[in-house]
Design goal:
The complex is a heterotrimer of chains A (315), B (291) and C (526).
Chain A (H helix, E strand, L loop, with lengths): L3 E2 L5 E2 L1 H10 L1 H30 L17 H8 L3 H19 L1 H11 L4 H11 L7 H12 L5 H8 L14 H25 L4 H9 L4 H25 L7 H7 L5 H4 L2 H11 L3 H30 L5
Antiparallel strand pairs in A: 1-2
Chain B lengths: L1 H37 L3 H5 L13 H7 L4 H31 L6 H13 L4 H10 L6 H5 L6 H13 L2 H9 L4 H9 L4 H17 L2 H6 L8 H10 L19 H16 L1 H5 L15
Chain C lengths: L1 H34 L14 E6 L13 H10 L1 E5 L6 H14 L5 E4 L2 H9 L7 H7 L1 H9 L1 H7 L9 E4 L6 E6 H6 L8 H13 L23 H5 L9 E3 L5 E3 L4 H15 L12 H9 L5 E5 L2 H9 L8 E4 L18 E7 L6 H11 L2 H9 L6 E4 L2 E4 L1 H4 L6 H7 L12 H7 L2 H10 L15 H27 L7 H11 L1 H16 L2
Parallel strand pairs in C: 1-2, 1-3
Antiparallel strand pairs in C: 3-10, 4-10, 5-8, 5-9, 6-7, 11-12
Helix pairs in contact in C: 11-20, 20-21, 20-22
Classes of the chains: A mainly alpha (315), B mainly alpha (291), C alpha+beta (526).
């Protein structure tokens, strides 16, 4: 009998496996439709995407008449004169996002937790997630209006305080900050929902015991609350890392302009512009695959690290 | 010592309160602006004078929006897709998350990976469409509900929540001879109301805002959700798009209508959350683990 | 529950279609007798309407439906029941769905797209029907109109002589022009600027002499909302049209506009205007809201925009300032003294291709032919007589309920009643005359003499050429956009212009020009 070592270091045997499955067969039965779903609606199309990105597919030829061109699309992308700039901008925006927009909802959830009146807490929370529902088009319009050097609110404030007016959207140095602030604003309320849900699972008895042991408010947070929601935090972080090379083009193309391309042109906005010039399906799919592969590699590494440090991972 | 602690707490509470007020102002303002603009006259909007209060109060925009052909039918469709879709979503997500949360599930790591990979490798539009079309789902309700039936993000989220439930509960039930289905439905789910509410909310919002799938798959105007009817208006006017027909000056639709549309399309779903807030109750497991 | 709804919906739709079909079947014989007499050999309508599926861009006024009066009338005349494939009005989403439909091979009978090259590729690969035969056998009206305007057929015809789509023949010279506050000019005793120097003086006067009379030097003389492209007038004076990367010189050679010496001159001029704050320093980020705010608040007095905006601005601003007057102005003269503009519409609009698998090609051909008959032209341009328009002094004029609606523009009403400019029809100039006000028409006509043809938009490329162009052009364009803006804003000194030209060459400009040249040469021979 073949003996393979499983991840929990027990010796694996087919007979044991079969007994286990038989005794818990409900578990496997209920998972079947899930597998079917993923196979049909996720993995089959994924194969199609690879086919498009690695061949000279175009919509008229169809799959069968397309010929394999391998990594030719990727080579084009890598050789683009703007390639490194695009990578840098995309990564910078996402890393700043990770630094600020990721913890913000956690902090908010913790602070909301400290509000004694439940009514107030609920009201504040409801208001805080409204930005999530404001469409990108409106957000862009507002940003442009607020940041205008001549008539915008922000500059009026600055001038009122005696400062120099700044054309925020015309200087490359501000773009990353603007994107980060926007991400915090838009995601803080909606993101907090997840952590608030996680917080409901914390056993109040633990709090009582800690208080009796003389723990102060911060001690409670540090020793009870945070560890309790740590799995959620870690998982959310890992999920974010998978998208590290992706910044959505919608907001970017609405607020950027060529004079700040140096910091604002990201992979998706560049591909978008290229797509306007010529419908180049195969190329944009290939770039997407590139982003995905890198994202996956990053998560694999991060997952390993997370499991080592916190025993929590995605798999 | 007691005095010092309560001073610290008061300081904290005050700071917290200030922070919350600022937060509310910053997050509420755009919304109030949209609301005000939807009731304002176009001149004031174009002059940029509208702040949080309507200027030149008028309800014309709303009249025009509700005169759109089939808007009520579209509302009904959206509600239907949202309810029906979310029900399926929750069922499948639970069926996916529960086994993945059980350590005894063989292939757990493999299937977790299976669930995770689609988050990073999004399937292209053309292949997805070919699959849905090939299954003959086009122009049916199933096209709105099946392709997005499971969102991996939500599965992983729910799995994380399930893993927080003390194993002792499951073990004692299994010892008593309960099958996994019984454990799931009688023990785990009742303790997971907040996570079901969360995930359900995410799915519901996704359905409500869904636009492109409906655009692709639904042919009969009878089946359209409101986003199809209304989204067109909001996108216009803002970007100098490429179809360079110099003459097709698209701002034929007044600014006010744009804002009224947003209100009409978004308010209903916004109103959902306050109702489910009551499910986010602390200490749901109080009393369930004894000894 | 869901199945019941599906069946119910299907039943309702099916019933609806049957009802309409029944009514049409009754009405058609009566119409057939009438249409046969109209000139141009109009459609001899078949006994039963055929169902034709159509994919054309959506409109924000609302989704198209067979209940709309104009659609109903067209349906009846053509003997066609339209099945509308839902389409967004957003370009990117429309293109995505278009691509998906083609890829799935489940193609509606009629497919509309602005990318003529794409339609040609589709035709060449056999996905779209070749129309040459149909044109010769059943579309005499179309051929007659094409004969009147040869450039149309030249653009539509592919390099191999085949015709894979029809496109709307545009008649109106719609364009972007300089629009300014005539009342400010009058107030300051200035005449309309015709040269670059005069424009500079006018804008300087706007800035210094407080035409909005509020005692504050807050004027932003020239503003715009189209980013760099709105600075077109300042480049046109030097013979460069910055909206188009390529142009053809007098010897049939394709040249690149963005390394042209005229381009440098334009940059210098624009830069001067910018540094002296005569051009809105936020031109690169302005959107519609900021632009209209500047103009309606009396902050700005000059802009470059679609000519109908003069009227639009007048209507808005007069609610607060009744004496305000926006007028359109001719392009500026540069050192060579020849004012010209290329910023106008193409001879052809969007293209409509026919699916090669369509079962109703004959009916579609007849439908197209009908559109070019006198009756068809009237209906596609104006709508239904007595409903949208009537004849006044022998000329079609839109009814008051359209022209005088307090909240909707006439075009809005037309669109919401089923009028579409996506059909491949023949645009009658009278349409725009009827649609526009006298002022608008006057402005438009005054600019027409300056118009010169733009770079052909309907070139076809071989796979080789396309690869070169796609690969290099996006890099070239990005570089151009970034540098042009930097030059104008003074971020990059114009002394570095030669470096910019060299770098453009390095990116691969010559290869792109070569590809465009061969494509153009083939086009010229069509």
């Amino acid at each position: 009998m073949a003996k393979l070592h499983a991840s929990n270091n027990q010796v694996f045997s087919w007979r044991k496996a079969w007994t286990s499955v038989r005794s818990e067969y409900h578990l496997y039965l209920m998972f079947l439709p899930v597998v079917a779903y993923y196979a049909i609606f996720r993995y089959v199309p994924m194969v199609g995407s690879f086919a498009i990105g690695l061949t000279d597919y175009d919509i008229f030829k169809g799959f069968l008449a397309s010929s394999f061109i391998g990594l030719s699309n990727f080579k084009d992308f890598l050789n683009d004169i703007y390639f490194w700039r695009l990578i840098r901008n995309t990564l910078a925006i996402n890393l700043l996002n990770l630094l600020f927009a990721f913890p913000a909802p956690i902090v908010l959830a913790l602070l909301l937790n400290e509000i004694p009146l439940r009514r107030v807490k609920n009201v504040v929370q409801t208001i805080s997630y409204l930005p999530h529902f404001v469409s990108t088009v409106i957000i862009a319009s507002m940003l442009i209006t607020f940041l205008s050097p001549s008539t915008g609110l922000v500059n009026n404030l600055i001038a009122g305080l005696g400062g120099q007016r700044v054309a925020f959207l015309l200087r490359p140095g501000y773009f990353w900050g603007i994107m980060t602030l926007e991400a915090v604003w838009q995601g803080i309320g909606w993101g907090a929902i997840i952590y608030l849900a996680a917080l409901t699972g914390v056993n109040p008895e633990l709090y009582e015991a800690a208080v009796m042991d003389g723990s102060g408010r911060w001690g409670l947070v540090w020793h009870i609350t945070l560890p309790a929601i740590l799995p959620t935090i870690v998982v959310m972080l890992l999920l974010r890392i998978g998208h590290l090379l992706e910044v959505g083009y919608e907001l970017v193309i609405l607020i950027y302009n060529p004079s700040i391309y140096s910091t604002s042109d990201v992979i998706s906005s560049y591909v978008y512009r290229r797509g306007i010039l010529e419908a180049d399906y195969s190329y944009s799919t290939a770039v997407g695959l590139f982003q995905s592969v890198i994202g996956l590699l990053l998560v694999v590494g991060a997952n390993r690290l997370a499991k080592r440090l916190t025993q929590v991972g995605i798999w | 010592m007691g005095g010092r602690r309560s001073v610290g707490r008061t300081v904290f509470n005050v700071c917290n309160a200030v922070f919350m007020v600022l937060l509310c102002v910053m997050t509420l303002y755009p919304f109030l602006f949209i609301l005000a603009a939807s009731f304002s006259s176009p001149l004031f909007i174009s002059q940029g004078k509208v702040g949080m209060v309507p200027l030149g109060f008028t309800t014309t925009a709303y009249h025009m929006v509700f005169e759109y052909p089939m808007i009520w039918r579209a509302y009904f469709n959206t509600v239907f897709y949202t309810l029906f879709g979310t029900a399926i979503n929750i069922l499948l997500t639970v069926l996916a998350a529960y086994p993945l949360s059980r350590k005894s599930f063989l292939g757990r790591r493999f299937f977790s990976l299976m669930v995770f990979v689609p988050i990073v490798f999004t399937s292209g539009l053309i292949p997805s469409f070919l699959v849905v079309n090939g299954l003959g789902l086009r122009n049916t309700v199933w096209a709105m509900v099946l392709p997005g039936a499971i969102t991996s993000f939500n599965v992983i989220l729910m799995r994380t929540f399930f893993e927080e439930i003390p194993v002792a509960l499951e073990e004692s039930a299994r010892i008593d001879g309960a099958s996994h289905s019984a454990v799931l439905f009688r023990i785990v789910l009742p303790l997971s109301i907040p996570s079901i509410a969360t995930v359900g909310l995410f799915y519901a919002v996704g359905h409500w805002n869904s636009f492109f799938p409906a655009l692709l798959y639904l042919r009969d105007p009878e089946m359209h959700p409101i986003q199809i009817v209304l989204r067109n208006i909001v996108i216009m006017n803002q970007t100098e798009m490429v179809m360079q027909s110099v003459e097709s000056d698209r701002a034929q639709v007044g600014e006010t209508i744009k804002y009224a549309t947003i209100m009409v399309a978004t308010l209903p779903i916004l109103a959902v959350y306050p109702f489910i807030q009551k499910y986010f109750v602390k200490g749901a497991m109080l009393g369930s683990v004894k000894g | 529950m869901s199945r019941r709804i599906i069946h119910g919906a299907a039943g309702a739709v099916g019933g609806g279609i049957l009802a309409v079909a029944f009514l049409l079947a009754l009405a058609v014989p009566a119409l057939a007798a009438g249409t046969a007499e109209k000139s141009g050999g109009g459609a001899t309508a078949p006994a039963k309407p055929v169902e034709i599926s159509v994919f054309m861009p959506g409109r924000p006024e609302g989704p198209i439906s067979n209940d709309m009066p104009i659609i109903k009338a067209i349906s009846a005349k053509a003997g066609i029941l339209f099945k509308w494939e839902q389409a967004p009005s957003d370009d990117k989403q429309y293109t995505e769905k278009f691509n998906i439909l083609v890829a799935s091979r489940d193609i509606p009978d009629l497919m509309v797209n602005n990318d003529k090259e794409l339609l040609n590729r589709g035709g060449a690969s056999g996905v779209f029907e070749t129309l040459n035969g149909h044109l010769d056998s059943s579309m005499p009206n179309v051929k007659k109109r094409w004969a009147e305007k040869p450039v149309v057929e030249k653009m539509i015809r592919n390099d191999d002589g085949k015709i894979y789509y029809l496109a709307r023949m545009t008649a109106v010279k719609t364009m972007n022009i300089l629009i300014g506050r005539q009342d400010w000019l009058d107030k300051l005793g200035l005449s309309v600027p015709t040269t670059t120097d005069e424009m500079y003086a006018v804008l300087k006067a706007f800035k210094d002499k407080d035409p909005n009379g509020n005692g504050k030097a807050d004027e932003i003389p020239f503003t715009c909302r189209g980013k760099l492209n709105s600075l077109t007038p300042f480049f046109e004076a030097y013979g460069v049209f910055i909206k188009e990367p390529f142009y053809v010189d007098g010897n049939g050679k394709v040249k690149y506009a963005y390394t042209d010496p005229g381009f440098k001159a334009g940059l210098e001029y624009a830069n001067r205007l910018y540094m002296d704050k005569l051009i809105d320093n936020e031109y690169a980020t302005n959107d519609l809201n900021i632009w209209s705010s500047r103009l309606t608040n009396g902050l700005s007095g000059m802009t470059f925009d679609v000519f109908v905006r003069a009227e639009f601005l007048n209507n808005l601003i007069r609610k607060g300032d009744p004496k305000a007057q926006f007028l359109g102005y001719a392009p500026l003269k540069g050192p060579d003294g020849k004012p010209a503009t290329r910023d106008q519409q193409n001879p052809i609009g969007v293209g409509t291709a026919v699916s090669a698998k369509s079962k109703y090609k004959a009916e579609i051909a007849r439908f197209f032919n009908w559109m070019y008959s006198d009756e068809g032209i009237l209906m596609t341009n104006f709508g239904v007589e007595g409903n949208q328009y009537t004849f006044v002094n022998g000329q079609p004029a839109y009814m008051d309920r359209l022209m005088k609606d307090p909240t909707k523009t006439p075009q809005f009403v037309l669109y919401s009643e089923g009028w579409r400019d996506n059909w491949p029809y023949y645009t009658d100039l009278r349409y725009e005359n009827a649609m526009g006000t006298e002022l608008q028409n006057k402005i438009r006509d005054s600019i027409v003499p300056y118009i010169i043809p733009n770079f052909p938009s309907a070139l076809s490329y071989t796979d080789e050429e396309r690869k070169v162009i796609t690969g290099k052009l996006s890099q070239l364009k990005t570089y151009y956009e970034e540098m042009a803006n930097k030059f104008v804003m003074g971020v990059e000194p114009l002394s570095k212009y030669d470096e910019y030209v060299k770098k453009s060459e390095q990116i691969g400009l010559q290869d792109v020009l070569k590809a465009q040249q061969s494509a153009y040469d083939r086009f010229a021979k069509r």
